[in-house]
Design brief:
With about 160 residues, the protein is of the alpha+beta class. About 25% of the residues lie in helices and about 30% in strands. The chain has four helices and ten strands; from the N terminus they run ααβββββαβββββα. The protein has a five-stranded antiparallel β-sheet with strand order 5-4-3-7-6. The chain has a three-stranded antiparallel β-sheet with strand order 8-9-10, with no helix packed on it. It is globular and about 55 Å long. The relative contact order is 0.11. The model has no long low-confidence stretch (mean pLDDT about 85).
């Protein structure tokens, strides 16, 4: 198939850029500058969610969302003001709409914004427990598979020994 590299979903920007560098090294691209330009432009992420609440429609700014979580097969956005809103998307879809520099999916049930993290504790089996603000009745534990990636995300993308 004459492939040079492959990228697995969900696509991470750094992996895509590494594949493009590899592509460039092979010397096959006349259009690489256009691809780089498109990637360097600000990602076209939404600034708000549009919600249907009964018969009314409401918008919620993504910057106001502290965390998103799933409970009883419904996804919710918890805002910094303590208000909770049901979302029409599942967490996989929500994760794609959020800025990965600001939001991190700590496990299958929760995506947290950096500013919502109040405290972090070490937990069993190299896992990490996260306390969020506004408070949650749930105990949020970063999965074992995501713990090292979470620690890197906390450090702004730098490897961090914890």
């Amino acid at each position: 198939v004459n492939s040079i590299d492959y990228i697995l979903k969900p696509i991470k920007l750094e992996e895509l850029l590494a594949a493009l560098v590899k592509f460039e090294r092979v010397g096959r691209s006349q259009s690489l500058p256009n691809i780089r330009k498109a990637l360097s432009q600000e990602q076209r992420l939404p600034k708000r969610f549009v919600l249907k609440l009964g018969g009314s429609i409401r918008t919620v700014e993504i910057a106001d969302i502290a965390y998103c979580y799933t409970a009883d097969k419904i996804s919710f956005a918890m805002c910094f003001d303590g208000k909770r809103y049901p979302l029409d998307h599942n967490l996989e879809q929500i994760e794609e709409l959020l800025d990965p520099a600001q939001f991190f999916r700590i496990n299958r049930q929760m995506i947290v914004q950096f500013k919502a993290i109040k405290e972090i504790y070490t937990h069993t089996k190299s896992r990490v427990k996260v306390l969020v603000e506004p408070k949650s009745d749930q105990e949020w534990i970063v999965s074992t598979e995501k713990s090292s990636e979470f620690k890197e995300w906390l450090a702004g993308g730098q490897k961090m020994p914890l």
